[in-house]
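@channel sequence for tomorrow's demo:
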Amino acid sequence: MRKITVVIPARNEEETIGNVINRIPKHMSPSISTLVVIDDGTRDRTASTAEAAGAKVINLGPRRGLAEAFRAGLKEALGDNADVIVTIDADAQYLPEDIPRVVAPILAEKADVVLGSRFAGWIEDMPIKKKIGNLLFTWITRRLAKVPITDSQTGFRAMTREVAENLEVTSDYTYTQEMIIDAALKGFRVMEEPIFFGRRLHGESRLIPNLHTYAAKVTRTIIKCYMRNMLNRKKPKSLALKYPK
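structure tokens (generated this afternoon):
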């Protein structure tokens, strides 16, 4: 029986984290073996609320950023011997009930990475500037990774153990585009499933307080990832780096 681990990066999401955890399907097959919340510098009761709802909490200490929370989640899931790893946000904009939909292509051995696409599904609310930014970076990611995707920034995705073992995510900011490009250029199969994306009911975005800063950092990350993969293609496979070390 395959083991599924769900990873939820979280920072100051006490109002929604319990709801997200409680709505994760309990009776899907195979069932979810472990639920991990990565607490990234939280100053409220996110950690205690998550633990009360039944999650294992990994505390990163002072804020480290989304990319580091993602890496910590993968490390924990691999240590748990997960066969499939799911990541979903803690703010309840994604539906935990959609996890079986996102995992299904992997269980059917049709994909190695599955992205829950908001743009192929239904977006209840997204500011126009963020929507334009999403579309722009998705176009760039699609061209570089050569995969027909519609949503490169989605925080709802699933991957196989093999993908997690081979990923190189080096950014200190976000992992979303880098993960897709790295996985695709390493030959892993990337596909999408349409999902629902709801209105944010509490707080503000933790990742994109400033669109100009986000755009600059993501552009640098994409360029570095693409160039790294192009250089590694010219090296013997034994010299290629792997994550985690």
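heads up for whoever presents: Residues 236-245 have pLDDT under 50 and may be disordered.
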